[in-house]
# Entry
Amino acid sequence: MIKAIDLTKRFGKHLAVNKINFEIAKGEVIGFLGPNGAGKSTTMNMITGYIAPSDGQILIDGDDILDDPEKTRRKIGYLPEQPPLYMDMTVKEYLLFVGRLKLVEKHQIKQDMDKICDLVKIGDVQKRLIRNLSKGYKQRVGLAQSLLGNPQLLILDEPTVGLDPKQIIEIRNLIKSLSKDHTIVLSSHILPEISAVCDRVLIISKGNIVASDTPENLAQNLVGMHQLHMRIKGDEQKVRTALEEIQTVKEIVINPSREENALNVVIEAGQNEDIREEVFYALSRNKCPILQMRPMDMSLEEIFLNLTTVEGGQN
Amino acid sequence: MLAVFLKELRTYFTTPIGYIFMGVFLLISGILFTTSNIFAMNSDYSSFLGSLVFIFLLVIPLLTMKILSEERKQKTDQLLLTVPIATGKIITGKFLAAMALYLITMSVTFLYPLFLSFHGKLDAAQIIGSYIGFFLLGASFISIGIFVSSLSDSQASAAILTFCVLIITWIIDFLGGFMPQSIASAVIFTLIIVIGGAAWMYSTTKNTPAAALVILAGMILIGLLYLINKELFFNLIAKTFSWFSLTKRFSDFPMGILKLDAIVYYVSFCGFFLFLTTQRLEKQRWS
# Structure
């Protein structure tokens, strides 16, 4: 469906996207993952034809997006990072306007609008001015806008940014239900968000693709260290000796806790080692009760560090 | 195109802009009409219409200041530039909406000659001529305004810049009279234009041979023209300046004269600026 060939974008001297290649098949749900300023939005803007690449090209079903924009753009629904809303229009007026812009047949617009409003749950705010809507509703109106014209391909730039947890789950479920009959490209800088909905993840860093895999594989390969954060009641020396009994433990960091008589402890074990049970028995033998224990997933920053220092070096 | 047209026209009335434009224009023109025609008991309507040109200079920037700058600021241009409609059509839709509001406002002033016609005899040809002139002049002003609005994402700077450009087109004819008339100065003037063109060529393409080619072609052209007809260069600066004067060409219309070259000039001027705006937005994709 989408093919990017040596896609490059320079802004003056700054290289925003550096010769990236990828291919997205029909029906796939792809996540662009990367920190702010990695080139995610720039890449998405190039896919939709909003900006042109400095080098390379984007093919949508084999057609260059810039050669025949009127044909290819019909296939794309785009929700930019900031939803393109007109504040002084009502939701209904806005959607009618976008429908006309996207050349939806006159008799079709009303029907499509009702369907989409039901889907993104904005039926009750149709008559309100967009200016007065909450951030979550604005985001949904933006999403509704991208669905108009029934495009096969949806490009969603950080669709859940700035929403509350309940709204995030709703939008995620919506994306999941849309993925049945759409090809979706979405971006985020949050790993769990991507892994919740995507079939495949492209990690972008400093304008390069540093990894491309399923979320499960990425998590397995990338979470090299098994880290445990714990709160333990007891004496520091006692806790340390108890933990040192476990052979797979590589590093122990102990800090005083806010709670009285308790310590904050972080331990690290080797790759793919589950040491939770051993830790539990070791500490209970020494009569140091565990008040809290949570495994620490590797944060995005650490994944990036790993990718750019280890695997990135091989690329 | 129709969608953009209707939306823009609606926006003029859902935001204060449309009301301010109509209000300011009708207030000032009303005051002028009352003092110069009614109180002075003067039935010369076309001289009143002539003075309206100055009000246009003041209020047209209001009409066009946010037409594209606001799209960029609110990032709604991401919608407009990714829908399956050519950029030129979007610009045309916006232009027509501004024209429509302009014409609606102008049509209110049809009442004035109607009042006068009860009390005296009016020259219909002059009045119709003036209104045709206004239509063309307004279209040119609006096309300049739309272009300037595409240059920045701030409404205020777009309005001020449009105002400056309009004032310049108004006084440029007058300024031309102060320019040196000698043939030598005209040659230097054309050389400066050629060098300017080459500099622009270089800044956009970063290609030295292309810029050199522009200079070479320009020099040859100037040399040939100089050899063939020296007189062509006499008072060239003033002639060039007055060519850009929008208001000078207008002066025939209130006399009831419709000159084809003036009409063609205004229509192509307007078309040129709308084309330039489209190119400007398209170029933004590539920068």
User: Anything to note?
Assistant: Chain B touches chain A at residues 2-4, 7, 10-11, 14-15, 74-86, 284-287 (CB under 8 Å). Chain B has 14 helices and no strands. Chain B has two domains: 2-178+242-286, 183-234. The radius of gyration of chain B is 22 Å.
